[in-house]
Model the fold of this input.
Amino acid sequence: MTGQNEHFIKNSIDFINKIKGLKLNKTDILVSFDVESLFTRVPVLETCNIIENRLLEKGKPAQEVVNTTNAVRTVLQTTYFQFRGEFYEQAEGAAMGSPLSPTIANIFMEDFENKALDTARLKPSLWIRYVDDTFTVWPHGEEYLPEFIAHLNSITPGIKFTYEIENKGQLPFLDVLVTRNKLGGLSTSVYRKATCSNIYLNAESCNPKSHKESVIRTLVLRAVTHSSNKKALKKELDHLNKVAILNGYSKWDVTRNLRWARKITHKGHNKKVTDKMKAVIPYHPNVGYQISRALSKVGIEVAFKPPRKINSFLPSVKDKVPDAKKPGVYSIPCECELEYVGETKRSIETRIKDHKKHIEKAEWEKSAVAAHYNDSKHKILWDDTKIVAQSENKYELRFKEALAIRSVRNMNQDCGAEIPKIWIETLASTQNRKSWKKIQIPTSQNRISVEDSQTKQTQDLKQDVKGLPVIGLRRSERIKSQQSQASLSQSSFRGSTD
Done:
């Protein structure tokens, strides 16, 4: 869907290849353009129409086109987030951080630039774009540049451009510093911002050797691919020698990887494809490689997962989602001291409400809790429901549910996932009931009325957004109460099935 015109580039290397051999006139000006907040200002409906037309042009079946565009439209128009305990809907544009956003932005920008360049009175002689960043050669003099900027800003409401003109014959674009040379062409070298700290994964850190090796290898490869002459390469390698020492490596690490980088640059790098089974295991400096060697003997290739970073222990600045609104394993007790242990990929709060509804509607076969209530008429202690464990991974949830079921007197109709006896005995000590957290399910007495919530939120929002950039947000019309907020969050982000 993307890369449909000659202006599109995939990465920095593609950019360097496109400007290689380019000859400039003395009156040409190097200019870079940038779209302000492109992702949050992409016109969704217009982009969906572009997608629909492209699919039809490719001869795709009409029904397949309709289904695809409807799916894209649904994803883009159901973007929600939480702020100070309230849920909001993004009213326009694509979500920041969404894997779909760069593709949507590229599709829109390809159509946009075709319109812009076709209708411009004065056109650049070169226009190369990477998502929202554009490198151009302007041959008409600086006095006519504002006219072109005004033309770009008039095409689509909300899409506004800023620009930067070359300074002393140099202009940065992506991680490439483009420089005019004496022959009338362009030379390239590595560009890094003034704020670059040069701090990378330290050689003494508790991480796999392959991860640390890739740090120097990547930096050296970039030096080779981005440096268009020996002088630029030498300057960059001198810098990398200092960076290597700063991060605990040696100059030899840089020299050794330079040979590798030159080799794959000239001959190309063909990654070996194997049909070996793969296993991802946590890295441990003492036993990690022993496990890797043992598994390699039986045809299993090991990839190490690095340990937790310090920032993972720090609190998040985002609103904390209550534990009851997240997926996990839970325990519902009865007055007879039996417990029901379950797991859900939805929120625990929603799953508990399901159990209550099954009892209210006499749907005894749909819930082990309901079946136990029907058989015994015992009191279910809803207020003593506890969270056993929480995770987004369905296999981890099933495993922890099975362990918890085997650690209590339960009313479950089965024992959950099959677990080898040796694992049950080994992990029995990890089932510490004191670590199970009691959860609070909102009741009708402590819910805020819709009118009070809307009034309070409007007042709070007016205070909170002062001095902040406007990104086109509105209260979701679908949010009716705290209860509907929870279900909306679950359906938007985690699906609707256990």
